[in-house]
Amino acid sequence: xxxxxxxxxxxxxxxxxxxxxxxxxxxxxxxxxxxxxxxxxxxxxxxxxxxxxxxxxxxxxxxxxx
Length: 66
Description:
The protein is built from 2 helices and no strands. By secondary structure, the protein is mainly α. It has one domain (3-65).
C-alpha cells in the first residue's frame, strides 16, 4: 500500500466518522439505531410486496381456471 492510498483511506474514515457524528447530533439517532430501523422498514416493505404478488398470482390462477 502506498502513502497516497493510506492518506485517502484516512480521509474517508474521517469523513465517515464526521457523518456519523452529524447524524447523531442533528437527529439524535445513532447509526446502529438507524440501521435497525431501515432493516425493519425493508422487511415490512418486502412482506407487503410479497403479499401483493401472491394476490396477483391467485387472481391469475383463478382466471386461467375459468
